[in-house]
Design a protein that fits this description.
Blueprint (H helix, E strand, L loop, with lengths): L15 E4 L2 E4 L10 H5 L2 E3 L2 E4 L2 E2 L2 H14 L8 H14 L5 E9 L14 E8 L10 H5 L1 E10 L16 H12 L4 E6 L4 E4 L3 E6 L2 E5 L8 H12 L4 E4 L11 E6 L3 E8 L2 E2 L4 H14 L2
Parallel strand pairs: 8-9, 8-15, 12-13
Antiparallel strand pairs: 1-2, 1-7, 3-6, 4-5, 4-6, 6-7, 9-10, 11-12, 11-14, 14-15, 15-16
Length: 297
């Protein structure tokens, strides 16, 4: 029986996906319904962008994928060099230059169908596609900044999950948070951590500006994004003082500017978080420009 949902969208495209060392036609790159990752979340992934045929921070993404897999006891049977060649090959095969790149590793179907899955094989696939602005094509957001709601869910303690792995299961509360925010007329949602400090958006890190200095949450229980690290370096080159620290929600009242960072989001100015309003100011615009120039250089 067909629901019709597979007839449109990401499941129905031309091109190829690299799948365990082979190039599989896009529509045929499928897994069994009893795949362990589908039932127990045993999956990790990366989000990468290529500009002019070159993946930005390629090796950093590759090594983070391998480390995330290690933390979830997923065996990736390919070297960093083999993974990077596969990314390049599948982009070229699909005729892509400016592209989003999605490697994903997961526990597949096998002899185990419970929490334990050591008898089940581990898989690796890489998909690439054209993807424009993560937060949509409305150019007004560059002027006004996007609007964030505040999630009911909190980023959990690093003692309860492998919080520094880019693991698929950790995004479940991000999905429900963003869905609720969108239904309320917001673009995304800001999440606090388990202690009540500001953490991140559902798929991006966050920065604030006050009196010419930058404040950003300390990533001690959530992902220290590669784009976040890149923007910190850009700020350092401009001799902007940065405070990486725990930030209370009430401090947003005094912050003047705000932006998000992520591979998909790149650098995205924020104009509003619930009742707090921010200017899309000079430094926010400068970081958008600096990042764009760096990734295309």
């Amino acid at each position: 029986m067909s629901t019709g949902s597979e007839d449109t969208g990401y499941g129905n495209r031309d091109g190829y996906i690299w799948f365990n060392g082979e190039f599989i036609p896009w529509r045929s790159a499928n897994v069994h319904i009893l795949t362990h990752a589908m039932h127990y979340g045993s999956s990790v992934f990366e989000g990468e962008r290529a500009y002019g045929g070159k993946i930005f921070a390629n090796r950093k993404h590759t090594l983070r994928l391998i480390e995330s897999a290690r933390q979830l006891d997923i065996d990736i049977l390919y070297t960093p060099e083999e993974i990077e060649k596969a990314k390049s090959d599948v982009m070229n095969l699909n005729g892509l230059s400016d592209a989003y790149v999605r490697p994903v590793a997961w526990r597949g179907v096998g002899e185990d169908m419970g929490v334990a899955s050591q008898k089940n094989p581990c898989n690796l696939a890489i998909a690439t596609w054209e993807w424009g602005r993560y937060y949509g094509s409305d150019d007004s957001s560059e002027i006004k900044g996007i609007k964030l709601d505040i999630s009911d869910w909190q980023r959990p303690s690093e003692k309860t999950i492998p919080s520094h792995a880019k693991a698929s299961g950790l995004y479940m509360i991000c999905t429900v948070s963003k869905h609720k925010a969108q239904k309320r007329g917001f673009t995304d949602a800001l999440m606090f951590d388990y202690r009540g400090y500001i953490a991140e958006a559902t798929g991006a890190n966050i920065f604030f500006v006050k009196n010419g200095e930058v404040h950003t949450p300390l990533p001690d229980c959530f992902l220290n994004g590669i784009t976040r690290q890149t923007v910190l370096e850009l700020l350092k080159k401009r001799n902007i003082k940065v405070h990486e620290r725990h930030i209370m929600p009430s401090e947003m009242e005094d912050f003047e500017q705000c932006w998000l960072t992520g591979t998909a989001a790149e650098v995205e100015p924020v104009g509003q978080i619930r009742e707090y309003n921010f200017e899309v100011g000079k430094l926010a615009k400068q970081m958008v420009a600096d990042y764009s120039q760096l990734v295309r250089s």
